[in-house]
Write the structure tokens for this entry.
Amino acid sequence: MDDDSKGSHLSVVLDLSPTHWELSSRDAPENTYPLTLATFLSQLLAFLNSHIACRHENTLAVFGAFPGKSIMLYSSSNAVLDSLSTDVNANSYPPFNIVDSTVVQRIMTELDSLEEHQEEAPTALVGALVKALCYVNRITLPTSSNSKTQSNGFHPGVLPDPRILILSVSPDLSTSYIPIMNAIFSAQKLKATIDVCQIYGPNTVFLQQAAHLTGGSYIFLERRDALLQYLIMSFLPPPSIRKTLSVPTQEQVDFRAACFCHKKIIDIGFVCSVCLSIFCQPLPVCTTCRTKFPMKTLQRLNAARPLLATGNSTRPSQSRMSTAGGPVTNNGVGGAPAAPHGGGQIANGNTNGARCVFHLG
Amino acid sequence: MPSISLTAPTVLSSSPHSLLPFLQSQSQTTLTRLYQRPSACLSIFRLLAPLQQQIVMNLLWLESAIASSTMAAWVVREGKKHYDTALSTLFRLHILSTSPIKLALNPTFKTSFRQALTGGGTTGSFGAPAPNDDKHPPMGIDGLDGYALERWETILHYMVSSGTGQNSMRPSKDVLYLLQRSGLMASPHGSLQITSAGFQFLLHSPHAQLWDLLLQYLRMAEERGMDLVEVLSFLFMLSTMELGREYSTEGMNGTQAAALTQKAMLNDLRDYGLLWQRKPSSRRFYPTRLATTLTSSSPPLPTSTGPSSGPKEGFIVLETNYRVYAYTDNPLQTAVLNLFVALKYRFPNLVVGSITRDSVKKALSNGISAEQIISYLMAHAHPQMRKNNPLLPVTVQDQIRLWELEKNRLKSQEGYLYTAFTSPADYELVLNYAKQLDVVLWENAAKRCFFGSLDGHANIKGFIERRTGGNA
């Protein structure tokens, strides 16, 4: 409603895995469009500047996911403090200068301080995402009427439609399924949109779901030489503009979940009817909530397994059921590992048509 | 949970920025010269509506023109009209080069705006920071805010007190001239008096007031022999500067004429409180918050309740019994309230009054509209009031509107009464002719007369004469 006058907030989460950036920068034949970290950063900075250019009030935060740790690289609220100390020249707009130098400097320091053995560790993408959510939560909290305005006289106020943009280069890390799902639900609660751009590597199942469930857009970058154009056309417009100028969204979303027991992405799973934990095989006792299941059910499910695999299930699979009492899902598609008590739903939001999830007990 | 609803200021800001129509009326060469400066491109870009910004951004990094149909494919069906309006504004601003089938940015704009985003170049359009000055301590942000506030309130206070006969500090001669030229004040009897446009002006948000005056300044610039492009780029440069940093006047002037223009502007803008200089002859200056927030919608001044304590956001409590409690000790705000409130008591930090039929009538006769009163009350409502939904008591809002309607019961219009037609046919003929011209204000077939407006008289008279001439 009042998007026109107020700024919008953008948090950018950068996946800075040295291994994958090295792979991404290799020339043909491995990559049709090689993209080095340096080129990526220069295009990213142009994008960040574009966001700040749109409104004086726009705020920005940049988070980096490094192997094993996540760091806040830049945020508009902290930048004001040390801005006067930085060097300015007559040819550039001071706020752009500050963003550019801070982001690049801190990335370089972090990457240089990495030791050899650390580089192989998976990146803390979830950590960075959660930090971004915490930051969004902080700035969206309405300031109480008595709170003092900041020393610079700028009243932060409530910015509508916070957005998070994840720029990922790593493949899915199946151990991070549960934290990512929890992050998605928090984002839904905060009404934050998660946009995802997969710059390198295969499609990620979890990030696709993140974008889909929060109403964001997921883009698998094909022409990597046109990164900036992709970024600007799809991720720069705030939600209010997306009502007029549409942005690409996925036609097909891979809704597969990872099982809690082996952290594998599974096509067919078994869901505890009490806590909604997902397992890849029928278990007598739920490992999460310790619920015991009757022997008869287990036998029946085990007997049905070959049938399930061929898809000739005797039970009708109910699709698109939302979990009652569980975290709210916008579009009725939900696999809800964090639900306190769902009462035995079949979570099956399936566009690939190959998966059903059965529940135990 | 109560949702925070922001009312009056946001409603106003949904309309396009007041500078854009002015820019649209400029010639293509003027605008292209303006677009040579990256800071001007950035500032103008900020003033655009979000959709227009996105269109510019989509085209910015493309090397070649793109077919209009390709771009239109991104637009959802319901947004088509919105999109077309956005495009036509961009065409009129000459940001898009005029070509019906291909969309491309004006090459000058494209180059400069790219430079603004990526930095670099040698235009120096963002202002040269002054080297550190060892002799004087730097001016603090609080000091700058205080200065800007003092200058700005002097202007407003002068306006509001001009009708009451009280003497308040006079702003400089140039400011008075500007106020007079903009029609906010007039001197019918020798002394300057506030006009009805001036009363309306007082109830605008500070941001709108600032732009009103600057627009007038721009219109006057050409008469004074100043180069409009130089004036605009100087303003835009100020708007991209950083608050609390000192800038040097050296190195930004190109030609002799440009230098003169800038010198004149430094003097003028110092009077309005947009920038601060230690001495009028100083070669360095600080932009104030009034200048650095020119292209944003945030309130230009941190507080308009003065340097004293008190809530920062709003200060007016309005009750259903028409009583107004204003927590302020600021003479300007009291004076503005006095425009439409009958003030009763004054305390050190509180002014109490009530909205009466007479006080509102007085405001209406000054040319202030009921909507303006209501939006002023909304914009300055006390945080306690913000808990109410709706913000202002409905009874009071309705009553203020009713008082306005009362004033509009009679409408007078000049014109001519046509009577004494010899036959109904004659009457019908002339009446039909007048109806075609759309000048009939009132008619009565039984009495065979009708009343036509002033502009239609010559035509009707001619028609009747032709008729009678033809018959004779």
Confidence is low (pLDDT under 50) at residues 1-14, 303-311 of chain B. Chain B touches chain A through 67 residues (CB under 8 Å). Chain B has 21 helices and 14 strands.
